Amino acid sequence: MKNILAFFLLFCLGTVSHAQFLKFGIKGGANLVKMDGVSFNDGFNLGYYGGGLVEMRLGEKWYIQPEVLFGETNLAYSEDFEDIYGNLLDANKLSSMKLQRLSIPITLNYKLANVFSLSGGVQFSKVTDRGETFMNNAGKAFSEGDLGLIAGGNLMLGKFRVNARYIWGLKDMNNIDNQDAWKSQTAQLGLGFVF
C-alpha cells in the first residue's frame, strides 16, 4: 500500500508541473459509513469529515483533485459482535466504536458542463484511532489502513463546490482474526470553497 501511495503522490507532483493552473481549497461535510460483516449493525452511521483539496487542471475538460481529509464515525456493533468477540469487550459494554481516519482521495474528473463534473479514483486511508478505549485485549481491532474506489459528481458554482461520492473499501479491516470480514462503504456529501 505504501508503494501505491508513493506512486500516486509522485504522479500528482509530476502533474503539477504540466498542469495549466491550480486551485487550492477547503471542504467538509457528512460521512455515512457502513461496515459490512455480521459484527456490525446493518445500515449507515453518520459522521463528519473535513480537510483540504487541490484542483489541477489538465485541459479544458479534465482535472485531477487530490485531497487530505480527516473523518470520524461511530460504528454500532451487533449482538453477533458480542457473540464472536465478547471476551475482548471492555467491561462497560459500549454499544459503538469510534473510527477516526486520515484519508487521501485522488480523483480524475471530467467536466460534462461548466458547472458539473463526474469523478472517479482511489482513496488511501490510515486509521488514526483504532478503538483502544473500547476493548481490553484487542485495542487494535481495525487494520491500520484501507484502500477504496471512488465514484461521484461535483457541482461547481463559481468558487463554491458541492460534491457527492461513494467509496467502496477493498481491504478487510478486521485486525483481530479472520472470523468476520469488515469492509467499509461510505457515502459522502460535502461543501467546498476554492481560492
Q: Features of this protein?
A:
8-stranded antiparallel beta barrel, 2 helices, 57% strand, elongated
Characterise this structure:
This protein is mainly β. Helices cover 12% and strands 57% of the residues. It has two helices and eight strands. It has helices spanning 2-18, 79-85, and strands spanning 21-36, 45-57, 62-76, 96-113, 116-129, 145-157, 160-169, 183-194. An eight-stranded antiparallel β-barrel has the order 1-2-3-4-5-6-7-8. A hairpin with an 8-residue loop joins strand 1 and strand 2. It is elongated and about 55 Å long. Mean pLDDT is 83; it is low at 134-139.
Element layout with pairings:
Blueprint: H1 2-18, E1 21-36, E2 45-57, E3 62-76, H2 79-85, E4 96-113, E5 116-129, E6 145-157, E7 160-169, E8 183-194
Antiparallel strand pairs: 1-2, 1-8, 2-3, 3-4, 4-5, 5-6, 6-7, 7-8
